[in-house]
Write a structure and sequence with these properties.
Helices cover 35% and strands 28% of the residues. With 196 residues, it is α+β, with helices and mostly antiparallel strands.
Amino acid sequence: MAPGGDNKNQMHNSPRPGGDVPSPRNERGEITLAELLVAAPIALILLTATLMLHLASGREQDRTTNRVETLVQQRQGLERMTRELREASSITPTSSGQVDVVAWLRPPGGGEAVQRQLRYDCSHQDCERREGPVGGNLGAPEVVVPNVVNADVFDFQPDLVNPNYVTITLEIALKGANNPISMHDGVALRNVARDS
């Protein structure tokens, strides 16, 4: 045997520098069963957490959308009430939840304003509006602001007999929310004739 022959064979069979033995994964690119058993539950936990976060975010988005849509609808109803009360030529407060008004209104198709009798009744969980000719029968009620939870909607200043200012306060219940939306506005009755 040649003196250097044994050394060549020993070099090929010796472990890598640092004493590492080549792992089967490095040579074949496979994952061991132990690694799979550890990684699968972790991946499942991460997937579940992501799904739960997505579902919670979707529910919160639905609640926010509902709140915004309700707020816009209620605000439009309140603006209509204040606009028509501002045009009142006479007002008859019946209670803190109802008021009768004669106001100048334009017909739905346009044209000149005419006097119409209005009644706003907010005493039954909805603010309803009824309209008709002055001194005549009022038409069917139309809900202007739904889900009103407060009883005292109208406040007449300085008193019920001869008011010159009306404050409107609405607290509106929201589906899926614990707290109602509160809206507040006031109207100076600039066109109401005053008794001397």
